[in-house]
User: Which sequence fits this backbone?
């Protein structure tokens, strides 16, 4: 069984590239679950979103945790940020911007470990709620969140919004 070391991401070119690649992968999956498009078209759409509304994972109130396998390989990440109330969320909360596990490490329990770390970080930072967004067709992710105690609190078109009170 693989052991994972989880650490805070470092603000350097390599780690920014890793975060961007996994962020693109999450968008690609979301786009392609909703529509039959090529990887190239998914990347074009991702770049457009990122260029129009860039979010820096190293800005204030943001943190990215990277999981490394025992062989030193990056296995996945979770990107979090403290947020003020918005949309249907009435209290300050921690928002999961992205959680993504490399394909070779899926099914190992790593996503549950990263979610548990996110919940710990949420409480350590004075918040009682943690939320996220996932598209309705992503049944694997939705099942994970629901088994970990997240409840769907809103839906707009195919966008499902989840919240967990700690």
Assistant:
């Amino acid at each position: 069984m693989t052991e994972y070391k989880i650490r805070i991401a470092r603000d350097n070119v390599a780690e920014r590239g890793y975060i961007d690649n996994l962020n693109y992968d999450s968008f690609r999956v979301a786009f392609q679950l909703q529509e039959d498009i090529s990887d190239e078209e998914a990347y074009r759409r991702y770049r457009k979103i990122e260029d129009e509304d860039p979010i820096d994972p190293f800005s204030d109130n943001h943190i990215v945790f990277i999981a490394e396998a025992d062989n030193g390989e990056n296995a996945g990440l979770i990107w979090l940020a403290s947020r003020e109330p918005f949309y249907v969320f009435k209290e300050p909360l921690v928002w999961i911007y992205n959680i993504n596990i490399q394909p070779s490490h899926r099914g190992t329990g790593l996503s549950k470990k990263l979610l548990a770390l996110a919940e710990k970080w949420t409480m350590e930072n004075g918040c009682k709620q943690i939320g996220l967004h996932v598209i309705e067709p992503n049944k694997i992710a939705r099942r994970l969140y629901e088994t970990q105690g997240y409840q769907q609190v809103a839906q707009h078109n195919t966008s499902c919004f989840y919240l967990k009170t700690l």
Observations:
- The helical segments are 13-34, 39-52, 110-124, 139-147.
